[in-house]
Write a structure and sequence with these properties.
Layout lengths: L1 E5 L2 H18 L4 E4 L6 H12 L9 E4 L1 E3 L10 H8 L11 E2 L8 H14 L5 E4 L21 E4 L2 H8 L13 E4 L2 H5 L3 E6 L5 H9 L17 E6 L9 H13 L1
Parallel strand pairs: 1-10, 2-3, 2-6, 3-5, 6-9, 9-10
Antiparallel strand pairs: 4-8, 7-8
Helix pairs in contact: 1-2
Bound molecules: 2-phosphoglycolic acid.
The site of 2-phosphoglycolic acid has 6 residues, from loops.
Length: 259
C-alpha cells in the first residue's frame, strides 16, 4: 500500500485526479469504480477540469459505483445516482448509459447484485477503483464485521455511519437515513486492478491508522487493502496524523511517483 501524504486535501485531490487522467489518456476504455461522499468531490472537480481543457475524454469509459441506499430512487437528492450525475457525470463527456449505479429500488436485490457483478466481469473488471473511508474504517458500506471476501449484497449501516451521513439528509435527521444499502463487497472491491483511496480530516485519522498499521481485520474492512498489490492512499496531514511511519510513507510514495 502506498500512502501519499499531502499538505492539503486540494493537493491530494489534484494528485489522485492526475493519476486517473493519465490512466484514461493511456487507455480510453478504462473501467472505473467510483465512490460518493464528501471526500471525492474535489477530485471529481479536477477530473472535470482536465476534460474541459481537452486533455482527456471519458467517451469510451465505463463506470460502476460502489453502493446505493435501499429505498431511494435515482432522482432522490440524497441517492448516490443523483450525487454522481451532479458531481461528475454532467461535468465530463461520459455517456450516461456507460455509468452504472446499483438500483436501490430493485424488486429482487439478490438478482440486482448478481447482475451488477456479472456486468463488471463482462466489461473486463474494474481498472481503477476510487474509495473513501468511513470513520469506522468501512469501504463502500462494508461495515465492521463484514467478511473480507464479501460480494455485492444488501448491507446494514452501523449507528455511527447513520450519524455521519445524517448531515446530508432532511434537517440532518438520523431517522431520514436509510438503514440498508446495496454495496459492492470487500472481495469485489479488492479485485480492481488499481485502488485509489482518499481520506481527509482528523475524523479519519483513526480509520487510516487501522487501515495502514492495524492488522488485517473485518473490524476495519479497509485493512483488506493491505493485501492488494496496487493500492494508493491519498491523504492530508490530518488524516495521516496518527501514522507511526508517516514521514517514511510520504518519502517513499513521493519517490515512486516522481520516478
Ligand atoms: P465521506 O464518506 O467522504 O462523506 O467522509 C466516506 C465514506 O463513508 O466512505
Amino acid at each position: 500500500m502506498e500512502i501519499v501524504v499531502c499538505k492539503t486535501k486540494e493537493e491530494a485531490s489534484r494528485k489522485a485526479a492526475a493519476m486517473i487522467t493519465a490512466a484514461v489518456q493511456k487507455n480510453p476504455r478504462t473501467v472505473l469504480g467510483l465512490a460518493t461522499g464528501s471526500t471525492p468531490v474535489l477530485m471529481y472537480t479536477e477530473m472535470a477540469k482536465a476534460v474541459k481543457a481537452k486533455k482527456v475524454s471519458y467517451k469510451q469509459v465505463k463506470s460502476w459505483n460502489l453502493d446505493e441506499y435501499v429505498g431511494l430512487a435515482g432522482t432522490h437528492d440524497q441517492s448516490y445516482r443523483y450525487f454522481m450525475n451532479k458531481n461528475l457525470f454532467e461535468k465530463i463527456d461520459i455517456k450516461i448509459s456507460n455509468t452504472h449505479v446499483l438500483n436501490g429500488l430493485a424488486k429482487d436485490f439478490a438478482k440486482e447484485c448478481a447482475s451488477y457483478e456479472a456486468a463488471i466481469k463482462k466489461a473486463g473488471g474494474i481498472d481503477i477503483q476510487v474509495l473513501g473511508i468511513g470513520s469506522d474504517g468501512h469501504i463502500a458500506f462494508n461495515e465492521p464485521g463484514t467478511s473480507l471476501s464479501s460480494r455485492t449484497s444488501v448491507v446494514y449501516l452501523t449507528p455511527s455511519t447513520i450519524k455521519d451521513n445524517a448531515r446530508l439528509f432532511f434537517k440532518g435527521k438520523e431517522a431520514e437515513v436509510p438503514t440498508r444499502a446495496l454495496s459492492m463487497g470487500v472481495g469485489t472491491i479488492c479485485e480492481a486492478k488499481k485502488i485509489i483511496l482518499l481520506a481527509f480530516g482528523k475524523g479519519k485519522a483513526d480509520a487510516v491508522k487501522g487501515m495502514v498499521e492495524g492488522g488485517v481485520s473485518q473490524f476495519c474492512t479497509a485493512s483488506a487493502l493491505q493485501l492488494h498489490k496496487d493500492a494508493w492512499v491519498f491523504c492530508d496531514e490530518e488524516a495521516a496524523s496518527k501514522l507511526k511511519l508517516k514521514k517514511y510513507y510520504a518519502w517513499r510514495s513521493e519517490t515512486i511517483l516522481g520516478a
